[in-house]
Amino acid sequence: MAVLVLGDQLHPAYGPVADADRVVMIEATAFARRRAYHPHKLTLVFAAMRQFRDRLRESGTTVDYYRCETFADGFDAHFESYPDDDLVVMESPSYGTSDRLQSLVEERGGTLEVVENDLFLSTREQWDEHAGDGDPPYRHENFYRYMRRETGYLMVDGDPVGGEWNYDDENQQFPGEEYETPDPPRYEMDATTREVWEWARNLSGSYDTDPPGPEWADPEPFFWPTTREQALDALDTFVDERLAEFGPYQDAMLDDEWSLNHALLSGAINVGLLHPAEVIEAVIEGAREQPDTPLNSVEGFVRQLLGWREFMRHTYREGMPELASANQLDATEDLPEAFWTGETDMRCLSDVVDGVRKRGYSHHIERLMILSNFALIYGVEPAQLNDWFHAGYVDAYHWVTTPNVVEMGSFGRGIFATKPYASSANYVNKMSDYCGDCDYYHTKATGEGACPFNTLYWEFLDRNEDSLGDNHRMGLVYSHLENKDDEEMAAIRERASEVRSMAESMEL
Length: 508
Ligand code: FAD
What we know:
Elements: E1 2-4, E2 22-28, H1 39-58, E3 62-68, H2 71-81, E4 86-90, H3 97-107, E5 111-115, H4 124-131, H5 140-151, E6 155-156, E7 159-160, H6 191-203, H7 228-242, H8 266-271, H9 276-289, H10 295-319, H11 338-341, H12 347-359, H13 364-378, H14 382-392, H15 398-409, H16 425-431, H17 452-463, H18 465-468, H19 475-482, H20 486-504
Parallel strand pairs: 1-2, 1-4, 2-3, 4-5
Antiparallel strand pairs: 6-7
Helix pairs in contact: 1-6, 5-10, 7-9, 9-10, 10-15, 12-13, 13-17, 14-15, 17-20
Flavin-adenine dinucleotide (FAD) binds at residues 262-266, 269-270, 301, 304-305, 308-309, 312, 363-364, 367-368, 372, 389, 393, 395-396, 400-401, 404-405, 408-409.
């Protein structure tokens, strides 16, 4: 029997690959042209696959590595050399992938056994035990506590360390404009990674999409970890240099600081270079060795990986296939061009898009409170926003991008979100240094120069009053909307229509 290793399963110690004598890997390049993927994303996946292949071969494992257009071509080549071969693979977290692979293998006379994916911290059975027959909306906080108990992370004698489950109220501080963090590590490309990088950059603009996708022009030279050694080094660097202040400034946004104290590990974790358990354990151990590390930093980080990441995977499974096209607010606008070009006078949007263009990354609050907040209140169709995130980010895979973008960011279905993450410029001004030097006035909602976040926020509430007005979590904001007289509402609608025209003519 041979082990089929997919491009997001690149850990040598988990799953069937840990004991394999023979491994099969397929690098299907047609995937790369399916949408306008960022060259950093393509380089990360394909370079990490080739590096993994080379490490396996060095350790004596036979690896049949097929570089071809499609998975079908890869299996054609494989079964020509190994007729009737029996394969085993860990289940892919993305909807339908394992079934498709199984059909491709069986059509060629082989067998494919699909086993549990050990690169996560929870199983399907654990989720079922936790969720029971409960109906959505599922609650993250309940699942997170269940996972703390199941794993014993940050628990003493059955109770949470420090007495509280969650220290989020300590994690929303703004450090001031002058705040600086150590530069995160950048890994030099070796010949293997560089070859993929040159290919990925030249692919720009030649996608199979209709219309052809725009280019991610001028990315920085590729620097993300593509080997296990580099990923472990990135983890150590995070724990040693940035973990202590991860918690308090987790939600802050600074024009000159793209990484702040974030781990920058999602790309490596999502391809399997790091197992979430070893990341959490390194963080807990690091905090033990550096006793000044505040508990809110450690707990805040553990919650993301043990709670949110696992929760997203299970709610995606529960929500698919409907989740991918869910659109309960009937949002139909096209994604503004500024999401691709970064050309806008809105300083926040321009800076965050610029970061995505350069590095295929922005941190969580930038994704939620700038990008998807803007798209939500502008009325962008969630599936379009999902496609954009999927194309642009180094860590984007359908199983993780979809619940984050369609559900959390766009309030697509209500499978776990109980209200939309819609906000005015108040939030951006409180948590960032963007508004001070912006051409738009963060204090104005109407008239020339009014910040689009303000105008669109009120117009969004007004436009969706039938769907959201009865939502008890939105009672307060709707009471503020009620206080606006007809004249003010007319000015808001007029300005919102101007903002849309500006966005369409790329003059936002
Ligand atoms: P840190 O801020 O340092 O967090 C630690 C780790 O926790 C991350 O590495 C990640 O593995 C995990 N994590 C935290 N939040 C989430 C979450 N909501 N879902 C899944 N994992 C989480 N994450 C992705 O991995 N891929 C995506 O395509 C993706 N798209 C997103 C789109 C939107 C609109 C939003 C709001 C969030 C998205 N996230 C996605 C979640 C989160 O923003 C990223 O995981 C995080 O920013 C990655 O950066 P980091 O490693 O520096 O994370």
